[in-house]
């Protein structure tokens, strides 16, 4: 990345810069898998062809057919690699015999993210919210393959990213410091806290039948901290890497565990996915415009699909269903119980925050467990406080760590703080954070959780 950044900033021609950035992104992805790079390129070609055809044709029926072609093609690839075995096995169990033998497929890295970007681009052009003819094939190729956010987001809109490809980039020391400090902030969250917690969570959940209810409860709290710092840490690295070459990516987190409702949580957690689900599934289904019953159904369908997007397993289906159920319950009760208490009632505000936080932690059990049997067994052992092996972690320490990071998780403040140090001290801090992160991650599993999606 430092080499690619240096070369990119020295190239004067904007078209040559885009070409270099595209080939750098393709190289970045091909390091993981050369054969699967063809899927990424195919998605680029389909998206480009669909959008340009939509821009040239005005007849509504033909436009709908073209959009359907683009969406079906992209979703078919995603379905084949991510969901074929899951649905094949589920249908076979219901029918009592196997229709097709399971396929030994490697899930293409980042396919869920770049497929969603392709879909949003096609839909936006269809809605005439974005003019694709103003941009070249390389612009489309970069939009789908842009290496800082290719693997796990943030999920960007065409109207936000395309114009940046035409903006003249020049080196700015203050921007570079902001990008590097953001990368260091994300690496610190991931390697120094999330990964050690991952070892604790994995140990407890792997032996869940032998663990006490208290140990499983602590491990669940620990996973809530782990997944937040792991995923938000990745997003910090992605945003910082893009910042180094002059691009601005959307923020994906806004201290979600301080939310006082599930609806607020989804406005703060994985923000780009939440807005994608809202704009391309919930609102087209009717949103909240067709009465309470239809609204509740739309919420359930949206969150069910959001859960399925995360993975092809019943656990993710249950997890998505729980999120939908929480949102529906809030909507049904907000006009009665919640409305009866003024927002200035601090006791009730704290109560709502605690209730929301524990609902989210409860749902994380299904997200982290290997299957629903393991998840239900863990819940049962927690609720009955079954005796067993004890962890060395204290719940209070876990919660203090969590709340401290929620309050202090301010990467912009971190970069401003760094600028107060002398030049040599500042760079010594950055280099040491990166070297320590590399050294520690070499002894553990450095993979980010959302790489599997």
Automatic annotation (TrEMBL):
<dbReference type="InterPro" id="IPR004299">
    <property type="entry name" value="MBOAT_fam"/>
</dbReference>
<protein>
    <submittedName>
        <fullName>MBOAT family protein</fullName>
    </submittedName>
</protein>
<dbReference type="InterPro" id="IPR051085">
    <property type="entry name" value="MB_O-acyltransferase"/>
</dbReference>
<dbReference type="Pfam" id="PF03062">
    <property type="entry name" value="MBOAT"/>
</dbReference>
<feature type="transmembrane region" description="Helical">
    <location>
        <begin position="66"/>
        <end position="85"/>
    </location>
</feature>
<keyword id="KW-0812">Transmembrane</keyword>
<feature type="transmembrane region" description="Helical">
    <location>
        <begin position="26"/>
        <end position="54"/>
    </location>
</feature>
<feature type="transmembrane region" description="Helical">
    <location>
        <begin position="427"/>
        <end position="451"/>
    </location>
</feature>
<keyword id="KW-1003">Cell membrane</keyword>
<keyword id="KW-0472">Membrane</keyword>
<keyword id="KW-0012">Acyltransferase</keyword>
<dbReference type="InterPro" id="IPR028362">
    <property type="entry name" value="AlgI"/>
</dbReference>
<feature type="transmembrane region" description="Helical">
    <location>
        <begin position="105"/>
        <end position="126"/>
    </location>
</feature>
<feature type="transmembrane region" description="Helical">
    <location>
        <begin position="346"/>
        <end position="367"/>
    </location>
</feature>
<comment type="similarity">
    <text>Belongs to the membrane-bound acyltransferase family.</text>
</comment>
<keyword id="KW-0808">Transferase</keyword>
<feature type="transmembrane region" description="Helical">
    <location>
        <begin position="299"/>
        <end position="326"/>
    </location>
</feature>
<feature type="transmembrane region" description="Helical">
    <location>
        <begin position="388"/>
        <end position="407"/>
    </location>
</feature>
<dbReference type="InterPro" id="IPR024194">
    <property type="entry name" value="Ac/AlaTfrase_AlgI/DltB"/>
</dbReference>
<keyword id="KW-1133">Transmembrane helix</keyword>
């Amino acid at each position: 990345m430092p080499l690619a950044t240096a070369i990119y900033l020295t190239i004067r021609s904007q078209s040559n810069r885009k070409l270099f950035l595209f080939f750098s992104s393709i190289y970045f992805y091909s390091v993981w898998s050369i054969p699967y790079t063809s899927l990424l390129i195919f998605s680029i070609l389909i998206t480009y062809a669909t959008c340009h055809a939509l821009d040239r044709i005005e007849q509504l029926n033909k436009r709908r057919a073209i959009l359907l072609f683009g969406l079906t093609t992209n979703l078919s690839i995603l379905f084949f690699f991510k969901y074929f075995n899951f649905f094949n096995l589920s249908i076979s169990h219901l029918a009592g015999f196997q229709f097709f033998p399971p396929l030994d497929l490697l899930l293409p890295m980042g396919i869920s993210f770049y497929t969603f970007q392709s879909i949003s681009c096609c839909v936006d052009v269809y809605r005439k919210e974005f003019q694709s003819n103003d941009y070249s094939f390389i612009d489309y190729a970069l939009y789908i393959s842009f290496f800082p956010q290719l693997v796990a987001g943030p999920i960007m809109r065409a109207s936000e990213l395309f114009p940046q490809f035409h903006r003249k980039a020049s080196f700015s020391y203050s921007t570079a410091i902001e990008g590097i400090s953001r990368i260091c902030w994300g690496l610190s969250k991931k390697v120094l806290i999330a990964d050690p917690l991952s070892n604790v969570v994995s140990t407890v959940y792997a032996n869940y039948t032998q663990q006490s209810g208290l140990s499983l409860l602590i491990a669940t709290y620990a996973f809530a901290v782990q997944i937040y710092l792991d995923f938000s840490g990745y997003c910090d690295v992605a945003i910082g890497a893009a910042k180094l070459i002059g691009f601005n990516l959307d923020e994906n987190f806004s201290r979600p565990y301080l939310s006082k409702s599930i609806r607020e949580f989804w406005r703060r957690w994985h923000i780009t996915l939440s807005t994608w689900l809202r704009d391309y599934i919930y609102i087209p289904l009717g949103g909240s415009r067709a009465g309470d019953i239809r609204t509740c159904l739309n919420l359930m369908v949206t969150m069910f699909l959001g859960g399925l997007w995360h993975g092809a397993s019943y656990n993710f289906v249950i997890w998505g269903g729980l999120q939908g159920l929480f949102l529906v319950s809030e909507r049904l009760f907000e006009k009665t119980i919640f409305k009866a208490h003024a927002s200035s009632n601090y006791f009730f505000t704290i109560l709502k925050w605690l209730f929301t936080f524990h609902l989210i932690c409860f749902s994380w059990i299904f997200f982290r467990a290997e299957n629903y049997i393991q998840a239900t067994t863990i819940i049962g052992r927690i609720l009955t406080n079954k005796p067993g092996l004890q962890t060395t972690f204290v719940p209070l320490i876990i919660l203090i760590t969590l709340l401290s990071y929620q309050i202090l998780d301010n990467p912009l403040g971190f970069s401003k703080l760094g600028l107060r140090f002398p030049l040599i001290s500042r760079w010594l801090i950055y280099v040491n954070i990166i070297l320590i992160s590399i050294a520690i991650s070499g002894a553990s599993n450095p993979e980010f959780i959302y790489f599997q999606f």
